[in-house]
Amino acid sequence: MLVLEGAKPLDVGIPAQVFTTRASMPYEVHVCGAAPGLVTGGDGLSYHVAHGLEALEWADTVFIPGYRHPDREPPPAVVVEALRAAHERGARLAAISTGAFALAATGLLDGRRATTHWHYTQALRAGHPLVRVDANVLFVDEGSVLTSAGAASGIDLCLHLVRRDLGVGVANHAARRLVAAPYRSGGQAQYVPRSLPEELGPVFAATRQWALERLGEPLTLGDLARNANVSPRTFSRRFVEDTGYTPMQWVLRARVDVARELLERTELGVEQVAAQVGLGTGANLRLHFQRILGTSPSGYRETFARGE
């Protein structure tokens, strides 16, 4: 984690806790700054970092937590060059909140989609017009460069990376440890709407849970709307506002997510998995796996299956 002057405590703490060095997580967490020693943070806290920028020469993933007043002055040139060099040798760079400004200063976000805290999206657009700023998402995965919105969305981003590295099962274990929502459905470039829940949000959350418990059964828009006690038209409109997906898109992705975990955790065949999650046939499961994840069920199992 690259801690810059004015770093926000929660932005620093989230990746430190998600990727904590422990037996169940194959990561080592190190904290660095522009130089070793004391870094003045935001909100009255400071950080004593053990490493300078030399840590970026061997890190596999570099997190850039958000920091105060990112629009007032660019990060130091040595920081920008170290980030560019890390990316060039193959490290992935992930920014939380206003850490996106440091990432944008490298030019690595030019022509790419990115996000930051909603309060700073206009400033990011103005300062870096080549960046395709999306103010309406929790995080954006562009492969080797990732950005997230406000601090809490850093949890979504971190769990997404754990899932990308180690699969759904390990990510869900990490989420349970954090007492956090395990995941939001999506493909490799996941864009999750950040719109705040309106008054029907809790009702729809209950309906989503109801649907998750019945994925193996036939589910229609009418079934979901009846459970939420609203008309199908109202349910569909409000569901898109709340999740970014149509109801049936969400059901499909939920089924694929459950299939992922079954492929990781069980010896069930593809046809059995397809039937259990409500996708009917192995051919149907393969089709949706390819469309959503860019791989096959067997390829996914080979990559992510873990011994118990």
What does this molecule look like?
This is AraC family transcriptional regulator. By secondary structure, the protein is of the alpha/beta class. It is about 45% helix and about 10% strand. The chain is built from 13 helices and eight strands. The chain has helices at about 10-20, 75-90, 100-105, 120-125, 155-165, 170-180, 200-210, 220-230, 230-245, 245-265, 270-275, 280-295, 295-305; strands at about 35-40, 45-50, 60-65, 90-95, 115, 130-135, 140, 145-150. Helix 4 (about 120-125) links the parallel strand 5 (about 115) and strand 6. Helix 7 (about 200-210) crosses helix 8. It is globular, with a radius of gyration of 21 Å. The model is unreliable at about 185-200 (pLDDT under 50).
Task: Provide a brief overview of the structure.
With 308 residues, this protein is α/β, with parallel strands linked by helices. The chain has two domains: 9-178, 3-Layer(aba) Sandwich (Rossmann fold), CATH 3.40.50; 197-308, Homeodomain-like (Arc Repressor Mutant, subunit A). The chain is built from 13 helices and eight strands.
